[in-house]
Each structure stands twice: as structure tokens, then as C-alpha cells.
């Protein structure tokens, strides 16, 4: 293949070569047949610059298209990645890669901080997704570079604690009627908010003893693993109270509130904010899951069993965070048994 050739019919010089197996054809700024030497020298310089990555064509690939290429041959254990990408698409999904600037990053960060109330650590996961996708675009020579995606400084961890029974009763009393059963169910089951909101009739199977068994598929779980939950009698009663042939979702609003397009629970952020104000107790919905895990630990349930009940990995050390509760109750029981034995023999425990 000749590097340059003269197009007599169009009266200009043209160069043609291959970069990484891709054929490149360009029109050169020479129109006379006698300018062959100049055209050849210009074409050589053009080829070398493009080979080194100093020249890039106008990028027509959008961020969404690049993301699809990024996900195509990868398997992610992070179940929240698709959710994060859907949020990122709101700000740059249809933008061409070379049009993405700091303003897109800032708009996303402002939304996540102000509207969603996320900590910097959580926002950094969104930024890491963007960085990985744009790095792949650079590696595949689709773009030469992109504005640096800088991580935010970590914030102090927020308070997380279990609710006392008195606090549970107080919060329950101020919740709207359609949120009372989901509140009790969340404390009893320890489910994440997404699973509680997404619970449908198709997830339910009736056991011979009359209680329900619930099965979620892998793509419905944060850990990306199937999950099976056998309901207690209390949880079964709650489901029966809310079960409807007309609706697929178990927990629902009675009517479409605040302009909502559906009648299932959706994002009940405003309900939580109102309950905090009316009860005078600050809490988050995730605290209900923490309360359930705390109750399991106080009951003496072992770590592997807790991992199964809470849908944690079998290798997870999360249950270990509650081990001190199990030990405290164990020691308290031992001390009480010693005291009781001492009273029986009239020694108040001395000499035992």
C-alpha cells in the first residue's frame, strides 16, 4: 500500500495507512501533481503523530455506549453498580466522552450530597465507576485523556445503633398507617429497604405449617446471591394483612401520595423525616436492620447463622461486630446463676 497517491479527478493528494489494524484515509493539503515530495513528508509526520497518540479523531462514543462495552465481558459482585450507573446516566449518559468535563462531575456530586444525603465515601464509589470507564476509553484509544476524577476526603462515620423497645413503640405510634406493618416487618426480618419495598406475591410460598417462605433471586440481592427467608408467625400475619389479589406488591400506599405514579412504597424518605420530627428520635431505616441483628446476638445466635439470616457472606465478619452483646448476656446469665445458687445454700455465693 502506497503511503500517498494523487487523485487526478479531484486534484488533491491523499494518504492511506493502518493504525492498530484500522485503515485510516486522509486528504492532504496539496493540490498540484508536482507536490509529491511535500505530500509524502507531510503524510509521514501525520502517521507518526497518530501512531504515538498525538492525534485523535472527533469522538462520537457516548458515556452510555462506553459503559456497555465496559460491562460486556465483566462479572461484578457489586450488586449496587447498575443502580449507581443509572444515576450517573442522568448527568452524562448521552454525553460524548470528549465532551465530559468537571461540570458533569460537580453536578453529580451536588445531587448525591444534597438530594440523596450520601457521605463522601459513598459518592467516591460513583466517581470510581466513572474513572474506570473513562480509563478503559483511554486504553482503547477512543479518547486521549479526560479531566481527572478526584476522590473526596472521607467523612466521619455516622452513628449507627439499635433502637430500644420504647423508641420502637414511639416511632411506630407516629408513622402513617400504611408504614406501620413495614416498620414491624423490617425490625423482625432485618431485610434491607430494597427487598422490603420490592416484596411481591411471586416471592411467596406457603409452607405446610402455614408460614410463608420468601425467595429472592440473585439479581434482587445486594450480595448478588439468592436468598431464602422463612417467615415467623408474626411476619406471616403481617403479610396476610397486606396481601392483595389486585396488586403484585405486598406493602403499598392506600392511595397515590405526593404525586407518586405507583401505589407501592417507593422511596419513603419524607415519611422518615416526618417520623423523626414527630417522635423526637433521630433514626435511619438501616437502624432497623441493625436492631434486628442486635436482637439475634442477644438471643445467642452464632455468627454463621447470623450471616445466613442477615444475607451476609459466609466469610463476612459483620456478625463479629455484635459478639460483645452475646458475651455480655452470657456473662450476665452466669453471674445470675451463681447468685441464685448462693441464695439457695444461704451463702450469697461465697465458697462456690
Produce the secondary structure layout.
Elements: E1 4-7, E2 12-19, E3 22-27, H1 36-51, H2 63-72, H3 81-92, H4 102-115, H5 120-139, H6 165-174, H7 177-189, H8 193-197, E4 204-206, E5 212-216, E6 227-230, H9 233-242, H10 269-279, H11 286-298, H12 303-309, H13 323-345
Antiparallel strand pairs: 1-2, 2-3, 4-5, 5-6
Helix pairs in contact: 2-5, 3-4, 3-5, 6-10, 7-9, 7-11
Feature tags:
352 residues, 3 domains, mainly alpha, hpI Integrase, Chain A, 9% strand, three-stranded antiparallel β-sheet
**CATH fold node name of the largest domain:** hpI Integrase, Chain A
Tell me the CATH superfamily of the largest domain.
Intergrase catalytic core
Structural class: mainly alpha
* Integer average pLDDT: 84
Radius of gyration, Cα only, in angstroms? 31 Å
CATH C-level of the largest domain: Mainly Alpha
Helix content: 40-55%
Sheet with most strands? 3 strands, antiparallel
Strand content: 5-15%
Q: How many discrete domains?
A: 3
What is the chain-wise order of helices and strands? Answer: EEEHHHHHHHHEEEHHHHH
Shape: elongated
Oligomer designation: single chain
